[in-house]
Amino acid sequence: MNNDELYIKRCIELARKALGKTYPNPLVGSVIVHNGKIIGEGYHHKAGENHAEINAINSVEDKSLIPESTIYVSLEPCAHYGKTPPCALKIKELGFKKVVIGAMDSHDKVNGKGKKIIQDAGIEAVSGILEKECIELNKRFFTYHEKKRPYIILKWAESGDGFLDKDFRPTAISNSLVNQLVHQLRADEHAILVGTQTALNDNPGLTVRHAEGINPVRILIDFDLKVPSHFKIYNDEAPTLIINTRKEEAVGNIRFIKAGKENFLQNLMDVLYKEQIQSVIIEGGNYTLRQFINEDLWDEAIVIRNEELKLENGTKAPLLDVQPEEIKIFRDNCVSIYRNSSQAI
Q: Residues 74-91: what's their mean pLDDT?
């Protein structure tokens, strides 16, 4: 690994610290290097606050070293005025010697413009360093902007003999270690979705309890509004979207959004894109999960399997016709992570 890759790797490490907190902005880390020594570091903490490059610049004690320094950034510096001024202009103004960029930003407001501002100012700019890793870091952001839909993660827990429950009644399958992992996943992703049946059967709160982080936006698919309003999904702990065929209405943190049943998954994607939801965990039951699998509309799947547990009868777990990319063992639970190569960005 050469020096440029080493520093971009550090940018990625920094960026990851804000996972789940920057929506609708991407995760970005930045490092400033002078004569082979890191003199500044920063990352984007949350939308509306300073971008990574500005935080890195602010952390440099001796600003007179900047014209002799290289700034590394995991994503192309922005070129537009949002809640903060463009970082590309700040880099130009301070006159860095060189800029090294991990991945270019496909988002239409940037898309090469940041790099061009820097190069037009006579500053050397290099991009595509650890590009694959930098795109992976922002798989949610890139999927959202390029595919006009959120990054979709399917998740379920099944018994050793392939059931989601015992005799069609809720059954604990995953152990306490895996429960922590699941709650961390909720904190890391933007939203979480269930269908009517899961909401009625399990009465889930869909909040983050066994990990640190922000509660995801809750999405309930409930065409005929069968889920009673005293159920946990209606509490005030997180913004909640109820996708239904009956009404459009906003009450406190709850929003009812109408969507047609015809071509439903596409309608749902349109709604979630419009709501700026960048990633969603599908925690539905067999029916909801199978719809996404049948349409090949998923990016990642996390399947928890309790090999020791045999349930013998109940709701059959969905089947994925792909090999897992990674398998993690948590005592008697085995967590398989799948990627859908046909949806890769």
A: 88
- Distance, in Å, from the CA atom of 219 to the CA atom of 82, rounded to the nearest integer, reads 28
Q: What's the mean pLDDT in 295-321?
A: 95
Which contiguous run of DSSP H or E holds residue 328?
Answer: strand 326-330
d(CA 86, CA 14): 20
d(CA 266, CA 263): 6
Nearest to 171 by CA among 314, 38, 272, 339: 314
Q: Which of 13, 41, 49, 53 is catalytic?
A: 53
For the beta carbon of residue 121, count every other beta carbon within 10 angstroms: 16
Residue 53 among the catalytic residues: yes
Question: Cβ(76)–Cβ(106) under 8 Å?
Answer: no
The two counts, helices (H) then strands (E), for the chain are 10, 15
> Tokens representing 214?
């922000």
Cβ count near 328 (within 10 Å): 15
Q: If we measure between CA atoms, which residue out of 171, 154, 153 comes closest to residue 315?
A: 171
Region class of 155: left (phi > 0), else alpha (psi between -120 and 50), else beta: beta
Q: Which two tokens stand for residue 231?
A: 């159920």
CA atoms of 159 and 143, how far apart (whole Å): 32
Distance separating alpha carbons of residues 188 and 18, to the nearest angstrom: 9
Contact call for residues 101 and 76 (beta carbons, < 8 A): yes
The mean per-residue pLDDT over the stretch 122-126 comes to: 95
Pairing between strand 249-251 and 217-221? unpaired
Token pair in block for residue 127: 């991009």
- The pLDDT of residue 85 is 82
Q: Do the Cβ atoms of 160 and 310 come closer than 8 Å?
A: yes
Backbone angles phi, psi at 311, to 5 degrees: -100, -20
pTM over 0.85: yes
| Residue 83's pLDDT band (cuts 50, 70, 90) | confident
pLDDT, residue 22, reads 93
Supply φ then ψ for residue 120, to 5 degrees: -65, -20
